[in-house]
Specification:
- Helices cover about 40% and strands about 15% of the residues.
- With about 350 residues, it is of the alpha/beta class.
- It is elongated and about 65 Å long.
- It starts with 10 loop residues before the first helix and ends in a 10-residue tail after the last strand.
- The strands form two sheets. The chain has a five-stranded parallel beta sheet, with helices on both faces.
- The chain folds into two domains: about 190 residues, Response regulator (Rossmann fold, 3-Layer(aba) Sandwich), CATH 3.40.50.2300; about 120 residues, PAS domain (Beta-Lactamase), CATH 3.30.450.20.
Length: about 350
């Protein structure tokens, strides 16, 4: 969602409308649109309309620039998870992050953040550390101990700088600790820098996991019968990310558009083939990890495959069970300049 602030109209009116639109759009904001004040209290000390327009205009093109420079999260809109107990501040930050090009999930309760992160896999967590701080440290502990979230950077915003709170926060897993009060641009700049510094391999794996999480969620919404499998296979056939669906014997039963593009093989060439066909799409050790996945339901592989033209491609692969008897292998070229987003 984009909010265009028009110079010459009252800033309070424009910003109030933008806050309302953002509140309606965000699924995870802990308040409804009716509860959001028409005029945000921060506007009492807000800069001029020209200054606000300049700040927003400065942020809008940054992700387009970074995509062209190969620094954006591979082919996807960056995701930010915001934990802020104050409703007005939460909606304000969510609106500003959206203007900067982020997909935003915002909530009041920090404990819920773990569950949301497991299902959405954001690129960064921005969390307000307020009293009681014990809850905040517990969130940080769970975040770092969960394999799904342990590599996602954390920015802690706090006014509790007495004693050893900043040191304890960093020791608990926070990458950055910012002191209140601060400008929204300070938080945005810090988050931008953290995501830019994230290793590309980590971003690739995160996108693969997101693709599989999406398929698993869809799998919960259909019956685990032949008709349900047919619906999931039909969906996979249309995806732009590289995904192959396999039956329990390892035969390919669905081929995404992204898989055909990456491998150079057509859907017809792949259907009916097997993960055990040496040199075809997913060679050893991927087939060995496939056996490991069937027994343990956990597997990932990094290997070199050869596409239909004989070119060597370094790939990262992740497996997941979508329905009983229907599994998915999501894979990506780790050297590609950009990965395509799910369509």
């Amino acid at each position: 969602m984009k909010h265009t602030f028009r110079i010459g109209q009252p800033l309070s009116r424009q910003f109030g409308e933008a806050v309302k639109r953002t509140a309606r759009a965000l699924k995870w904001v802990g308040s409804t649109a009716e509860e959001v004040p028409a005029i945000h209290p921060v506007l009492a000390t807000a800069p001029s309309p020209q200054a606000v327009e300049h700040r927003l205009a400065d942020h809008r093109p940054q992700w387009e620039r970074r995509r062209s420079e190969g620094m954006a999260p591979v082919g996807e809109t960056p995701r930010a998870l915001l934990v802020e107990p104050d409703r007005d501040t939460r909606v304000l930050y969510a609106s500003l992050f959206e203007e900067a090009g982020y997909a935003v999930y915002a909530m009041a309760e920090g404990i819920r953040a773990i569950d949301i992160a497991r299902g959405r896999l954001p690129d960064v967590l921005v969390m307000d550390l307020a009293a009681p701080v014990t809850e905040g440290f517990e969130i940080l502990r769970q975040w770092r101990e969960d394999p799904l979230t342990s590599t996602i950077p954390i920015v802690v915003v706090t006014s509790l700088l007495q004693f050893d709170v900043p040191a304890r926060t960093r020791a608990s897993g926070a990458i950055s600790v910012l002191e209140r009060p601060m400008s929204p641009e300070t938080i945005l700049a810090e988050v931008d820098e953290l995501i830019r510094a994230t290793p590309r391999e980590r971003l690739v794996v995160r996108q693969l996991k997101r693709s599989l999480l999406m398929l698993r969620e869809l799998g919960k919404q259909v019956k685990p019968d032949e008709r349900g499998q047919a619906r999931i296979r039909s969906l996979i056939d249309r995806l732009q990310v590289a995904i192959l669906a396999l039956d329990t014997q390892g035969h390919y039963v669905a081929v995404s558009r992204g898989a055909s593009t990456l491998t150079g093989y057509s859907r017809a060439e792949l259907l009916g083939k097997s993960i055990y066909d040496e040199g075809l799409v997913l060679p050893p050790p991927v087939s060995e990890r496939w056996q490991e996945f069937l027994t343990q339901q956990q597997a990932a592989a990094e290997t070199i495959m050869r596409d239909s033209r004989g070119n060597s491609v370094s790939i990262q692969t992740e497996f997941a069970t979508v329905l009983p008897g229907l599994h998915a292998a999501a894979f990506a070229d780790q050297n590609a300049a950009q990965l395509r987003r799910i369509s």
